[in-house]
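pls design
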């Protein structure tokens, strides 16, 4: 690992702005995770996410169709671009024998061999092509790191509770924990092509798969190493965060949040779903969603992606949301 960190330090000489003044500002304040906020909420929730499957961008190797991104950018001034891989990777990259992938006892799609060099090459090509188009576009503040993912744009989730179902595909495809670890390092390095745009990486206590025993475990030390690695390789371009913020989280998450906070800005969070935050109550008790936003502030966030749905943020008072938006945008 020491050799790897030294190599990362050397890489900083390439493609890195001379100072943070050359970087776009990160996404700030309250953020809609699915596109522009409804008109009434736009004065407060003025940042938003463009979520697009990788398969929509590259129908064939060496191509790039940005029409869906360009249409979604219209009128935007502070956007996070989330290109999803995993089950949303292009068919040509998944290959002739993609792996069936299961979550909650049901197949949700197929994934490719994300840990293999060919996948790395394709992901680096995608990032280069996107950077060529959007690195100088002031509206695109951040892009999401997503190569080593399965279902969500969260590379540290492996659905270890579904190993009985996912093991046959992984085993036949030659999955190893060592190759998975390398994937996490490589996906961060792939984002060095973004010289002026930040890269958001959603962390979780890593759901490690041991391919010798085919058991799962929680590897928080590895997550911490990758938090450090992201800041070592990308510096201020690395936006640290998590996509399931909720006061009711296991101890490993609390420890991870504290570790991220100690690293300092830029930090961003996506909340858990409205159903989870609100404990399936409708209307959502104000104390519950306010506690979630306060937690983001306590852990140093400068931006928060809000939950949607009938008990999501559009059911919360605008004046109260404005208070949190003001506090988030005031974070240094």
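designed seq:
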């Amino acid at each position: 690992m020491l050799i790897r960190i030294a190599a990362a330090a050397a890489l900083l000489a390439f493609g890195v702005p001379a100072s943070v003044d050359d970087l776009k500002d990160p996404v700030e304040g309250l953020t809609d995770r699915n596109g522009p906020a409804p008109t009434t909420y736009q004065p407060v929730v003025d940042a938003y996410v463009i979520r697009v499957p990788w398969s929509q961008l590259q129908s064939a190797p060496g191509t790039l169709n940005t029409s869906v991104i360009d249409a979604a950018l219209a009128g935007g001034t502070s956007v996070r671009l989330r290109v999803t891989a995993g089950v949303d990777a292009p068919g040509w990259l998944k290959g002739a024998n993609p792996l069936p992938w299961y979550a909650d006892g049901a197949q949700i799609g197929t994934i490719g061999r994300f840990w293999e060099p060919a996948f790395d090459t394709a992901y680096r090509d995608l990032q280069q092509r996107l950077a060529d188009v959007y690195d100088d576009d002031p509206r695109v503040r951040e892009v999401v790191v997503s190569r080593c993912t399965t279902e969500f744009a969260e590379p540290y989730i492996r659905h270890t509770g579904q190993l009985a179902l996912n093991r046959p595909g992984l085993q036949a495809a030659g999955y190893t924990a060592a190759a998975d670890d390398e994937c996490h390092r490589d996906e961060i390095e792939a984002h060095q092509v973004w010289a002026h745009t930040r890269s958001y990486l959603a962390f979780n206590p890593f759901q490690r798969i041991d391919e010798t025993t085919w058991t799962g475990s929680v590897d928080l030390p590895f997550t911490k190493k990758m938090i450090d690695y992201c800041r070592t390789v990308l510096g201020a371009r690395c936006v640290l965060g998590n996509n399931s913020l909720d006061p009711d989280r296991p101890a490993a998450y609390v420890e991870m949040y504290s570790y991220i906070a100690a690293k300092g800005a830029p930090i961003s969070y996506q909340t858990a779903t409205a159903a989870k935050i609100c404990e399936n109550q409708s209307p959502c008790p104000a104390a519950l969603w306010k506690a979630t936003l306060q937690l983001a502030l306590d852990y140093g966030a400068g931006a928060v992606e809000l939950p949607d749905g009938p008990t999501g943020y559009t059911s919360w008072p605008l004046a109260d949301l404005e208070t949190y938006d003001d506090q988030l945008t005031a974070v240094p």
